[in-house]
Amino acid sequence: MSEIEGIQQPSQGIPESTSAETYQVPTGFLANHPARPHIQSVHEYKELYQESITNPNQFWARQAREHLTWERDFQTVHTGSLLHGDNAWFTEGRLNASYNCVDRHAAKNPDKPAIIYEADERDGGEGRTITYGELLREVSKLSWVLKSMGVNKGDTVAIYMPMIPEALIAFLACVRIGAVHSVVFAGFSAGALRDRIIDAKSKVVITSDEGTRGGKIIHTKKIVDAALEGCPDVRSLVFQRTYADVPWTYGRDLWWHEEAEKWPAYYAPESMSSEDPMFLLYTSGSTGKPKGLMHTTAGYLLGAAMSGKYTFDIHEKDVFFCGGDVGWITGHTYLVYAPLLLGIATVVYEGTPSYPNFSRYWEICQKHNVTHFYVAPTALRLLKRAGDDWVKPMDSLRVLGSIGEPIAPEVWKWYHDIVGQKKAHIVDTYFQTETGAHALTPLAGVTPTKPGSACVPFFGIEPALIDPVSGNEIHGNDVEGVLVFKQTWPAAARTVWGSHKRFMDVYLNVYPGYYFTGDGAARDSEGYYWVRGRVDDVVNVSGHRLSTAEIEAALLEHPNVAEAAAVGINDEMSGQAVNAFVAIKNKDANDITDDLKKEFILQVRKSIGPFAAPKAIWIVSDLPKTRSGKIMRRILRKILANEIDQIGDTTTLVDPSVVDKIIATVGVTK
Ligand code: WT7
């Protein structure tokens, strides 16, 4: 059976697209520009886009030679198909990711800033700047350390780090020696980290003693220690961030600073084939088990470099500030790889947008003359609500990006008017862990935008909408359906680590010949795309992608949970929120207390991580199930949305009366 069971009707609070106003490229954008945008007009975009779709081999060959430095040129541009899931790009080519991100810039401009680090305010907000020359030395030393720990080309290394420059150094050292990095977001629990270490067969985990974020200490090493209890052969390399006294396992743990000082400051980059795996990144899907999406070297790097250059219109003196965490794809592609491939400075901010106050992001933008700021709408909602007085005048800003979830038009307009002072171009970029780089997006300086729309396809992306009932493509404009892509592109993930069948079933076999995104979307009268949200059992909470199945599996680990169903509902602050319905066992009805609900929430925090905690738990006597045992989550969603009249047919349920009982529970407790 396929992992994608029922395609849901998308339901996000985005207004009808036809009524939307169009914003032209702000005149202030051009006035503030260091030169001219890389792409000069909508016409030029359309011509290049057309070439990328109708003559992809010619297009990608030229782009690959222009944006990447090759140790050996390729002869074949592309082989394989979406139908067979055997895509490969630039096959005979050889190159190294770290060389492309560091060496080629260090050779030309060793003193140019590469990383601008802003520490959490707990430490007084101190930071430091690392130049390309220094970065090459740091990355080289760590490369030696990893080699000395027995990490070889093709081995996997887990990275579980706070937002500090050493996280980027760890990424780059891995790819320098040809190791595959598997970054695990440092908000994941010990159990979730262990699962990912085991699945990826990581040999080493790179971490820190502690982290500090929003004034709070995070016990990073302790979480790693708990994770490693289940994997005796994995070693750890620990960076000293707070100098706290942390538990130590001799023979297993090594200090980063003690090892690094043993080794020279140049390490020759490993020669890699274009299709050698570069990294794994785990993400949530419709089933309980997270999938390790595998990205390969040349295609991914090309997607990162090109989208950095064209979506954001990056120029050589620009300063890029991505507020996303390195643990997600946004951080991988736009905090680490795109800015470094283009040889500009990337800001690494350790803290939160609200600590010590709501001006923190804007002060960083002012202090470092940030030209590009990129963040999830969830942070913008928070900052908008805090009030305009916190926003500072930031004259250096040229491009403001939004990522991770649909952005409501009023938040978009606030971003444009207040943060950007109507001078910066807003780019609402749509992409996924699986796409590697932007898929739908305006191009800064080029594309007229509409608040709430991710606009138009990036080069090489051929979007289409499918009717989920018939499975047929919906042609024309002013239509809505399931978003798919009709041809592949270099930065696409190649497989799910250790489970190619799952990759095929989830992405390529749903509609054979198409890549299935899992999102619903509309195409308006002018061909602009409006992403509505997921149509599968994935919930987007504050830009974090959560699987309801994974949350249910976590709840079931609690001894008093008999059955659980988690669903997403719209939420003003977090976009969506998770509510879980739980049928209990081994307990009397009288024992149902708020403490028990708290225990259930704690169970999810422990199994997955704090960011996955359900916002509400509803204890019910039974769940609405069909005779084949399938839980009808649609009914639960309708009840929570107070759309009782739209529940529909309940006669297929084993016991239709449970619906009224659940309505009573939700209604009474509300
Ligand atoms: C899912 C991918 C890619 C960055 C972080 C999330 C949603 C992403 C947008 C956008 C509406 C968006 C989609 C997508 N999403 N960007 N601009 N507008 N929705 O990466 O964890 O792989 O999640 O995030 O639902 O499928 P991810």
TrEMBL record:
Domain AMP-binding enzyme C-terminal: residue ranges: 550-630
Catalytic reaction annotation: acetate + ATP + CoA = acetyl-CoA + AMP + diphosphate
Gene Ontology cellular component list: cytosol
GO biological process annotation, one example: acetyl-CoA biosynthetic process from acetate
PROSITE patterns: AMP_BINDING
Annotated keywords: ATP-binding, Ligase, Nucleotide-binding
One MF annotation (Gene Ontology) recorded for this entry: ATP binding
Annotated AMP-dependent synthetase/ligase domain residues: 103-488
Stored CDD domains: ACS
Keyword check for Ligase: yes
SUPFAM superfamilies noted in UniProt: Acetyl-CoA synthetase-like
EC primary class: ligase
InterPro entries: Ac_CoA_lig, ACAS_N, AMP-bd_C, AMP-bd_C_sf, AMP-binding_CS, AMP-dep_synth/lig_dom, ANL_N_sf
Entry's EC annotation: 6.2.1.1
Signal peptide: none
Every Acetyl-coenzyme A synthetase N-terminal domain range: 45-101
NCBIfam families: Ac_CoA_lig_AcsA, PRK00174.1
Family: Belongs to the ATP-dependent AMP-binding enzyme family.
Protein name: Acetyl-coenzyme A synthetase
Organism annotation: Acrodontium crateriforme
